Amino acid sequence: MSAQPDTSKVVAALVERARAAMVTYDNTNQDRVDDAVTALAWSIYQPGNARDLAEMAVEDTGLGNVDSKVIKNTRKTFGTLRDLMRVRSVGVIDENPARGMVKYGKPVGVVAAVCPSTNPSATAVNKAMMALKGGNAVIIAPSPAGAKTTARTVELMRAELDRAGHPEDLVQILPLPVSKELTTELISRADLAVVTGSQNNVKRAMQSGTVAIGVGAGNVPVIIDESADLSAAARMIQQSKCFDNATSCSSENSVVILDSIYDAAIAALEDAGAWRCTADQRDQVRAQLWQNGVLNRAVIAKDPSVLAHVFDLPEAAKRARFFLVEEDSVDGAHSFADEKLSLVLTVYRALDWEHAKHIVHDVLEVCGKGHSVGIHTQDASHARDLAATSDVVRVLVNQPHTLGNGGSFENALPFTLSMGCGTWAGNTIDENLNWRHFVNITHLVTTIAEDKPDESDLFGQYWARHGK
User: Fold this and answer.
1) Strands, E, within 176-296: which ranges?
2) pLDDT of residue 5
3) Cβ neighbours of residue 294 under 8 Å, at least 6 residues apart?
4) pLDDT recorded at residue 198
5) In sequence order, what E strands does 53-156 have?
6) What mean pLDDT do residues 84-111 have?
7) How do beta strands 294-295 and 290-291 pair?
8) CA dist 58 → 147, 244, 310 (Å)
9) DSSP three-state, residue 136
């Protein structure tokens, strides 16, 4: 009779402890709430912990590289803390006497936070900070591959909460070894599920009956047009593509280059460290990248020297930073148009601007619709046209995509590790996950002077066109 009763009891006990912690959490006092959020941030931001967790993550998962994960642990945490310290989230959060409206922020309850193997420490802290900012408690469901790192991350968060005088049980984790059954049970018992990771996990959460926020798959295409600074564009693409060995959903997967500057742009990418595969080498890469219809774990988020060996490329390719494969057409799933989670960048030659947009559209139809696109240009009309015609939530202009898409100190997007992709991807949010998704709002409404226009103000133009 199985482990189901035990699973149910284990999760029920965690949820009960979370609710008890919320009772003793001073979650109507903004200063105390902000103190708890800062405690979580400091638990991972302090240099020793940031590096230890980065090293654990690479050892646990075999994905990415330590230096990039240190940056994730610190930069994302610092940016998120900046965002959270600038807003009120509990008690009276907004008051507009002229409109007779006062808004009160209140907790959503116990949050189930499902976290991916690609960011086993940074995502856990990021979601916990947002959850506690809303006055909630959070229970983290780690990926099995990164569970040891996430467990250590939770230990550090709990210790820092205790040091600052807050209930430790505001942050908990499913017991190891984590299982699909435990995660499913947690989602069913939580008040809100926030899921980052595989699309299978997102779909299960959306079908659970619990209010759920999921994110979409990434597969970012980026255009380089005739007006772009090619050297700067190549440097930014290299910086972004190589960050954490392309584990991010915001990593560039395709670059679309206008015909008139194609050769010059390719040369700039090579100068930035790219290896340009021949037609035969491209076939070798394809044969190793997907096996039996899934990405080969031997190439996901691996160092370039490892890839060069697996792809059987020349010795000189081991010194490259990433790899270009040129394609004439956009094929379907498990082709170079799909998300690759590796240092392989597909290149398309566009005949003109309209063709470039068409390629971007086709790539997103394969994978990544709703997520984001990028463009390197000095032509604002091209950027606006791309935004107006692309079914994505974010369009980044002249930025390293991975370092800008989830928030930046040089753009206005909120810092996050979870990108909502709208109904295009079956998501309930069309923005970066942020604190606002972790609060309920009570509206106190009082009367104001009558705001009722005359009929002619609303119907006048319609009557003039069509008559009464």
Assistant:
1) 192-195, 212-214, 220-224, 252-258, 274-276, 290-291, 294-295
2) 57
3) none
4) 79
5) 91-96, 101-107, 110-114, 137-141
6) 98
7) antiparallel
8) 12, 10, 19
9) coil
Secondary structure (3-state) at 426: coil
Strands (E), 207-343: 212-214, 220-224, 252-258, 274-276, 290-291, 294-295, 322-327
Q: CATH code for 4-215+433-444?
A: 3.40.605.10
Residue given tokens 């007779």 in the structure block = 100
Q: Which parts of 137-179 fold into alpha helices (H)?
A: 147-163
Show Cβ contacts of residue 165 under 8 Å, excluding neighbours closer than 6 positions: none
Please tell me the CATH code under which domain 220-415 is placed: 3.40.309.10
Determine if the peptide bond prior to 177 is cis (ω within 30°).
yes
pLDDT digits (tens, 9 = 90+) for 142-161: 999 999 999 999 999 999 99
Give the separation between CA 266 and CA 270, rounded to whole angstroms: 6
Distance of CA 413 to the CA centre of its chain: 12
Confidence bin at 202 (pLDDT 50/70/90): confident
Other Cβ atoms less than 10 A from the Cβ of 210: the count is 16
Least confident of 148-162, 199-213, 357-371, 450-464: 199-213
Query: What is the distance between the terminal CA atoms of the chain, rounded to a whole angstrom?
Result: 72
Which entry of 249, 277, 367, 421 is annotated as an active-site residue? 249
Which pLDDT does position 4 carry in this prediction?
Answer: 52
Residues in the chain: 468
Identity of residue 43: S
- Indicate if 249 belongs to the active site: yes
- Read off the pLDDT of each residue in 316-330 and give the average, rounded to a whole number: 97
Distance CA 310, CA 322 (A): 14
Is residue 245 a contact partner of residue 343, using CB atoms and an 8 Å limit? yes
Angle at 134 between CA 169 and CA 120, to 5 degrees: 60
**Does 73 score more than 90 pLDDT?**
yes
DSSP state of 315: G
Output the CA–CA distances (angstroms, integers) from residue 365 to 121, 255, 295, 391, in the order listed.
Answer: 31, 16, 19, 10
Token code pair at residue 126? 């990021």
SS3 content of the chain, % helix, strand, coil (to 5): 50, 20, 30
Question: Contact 330/359 with Cβ under 8 angstroms?
Answer: yes
- State how far the Cα of 219 lies from the Cα of 314, in Å rounded to an integer: 28
Give span(s): CATH 3.40.605.10, the chain.
4-215+433-444
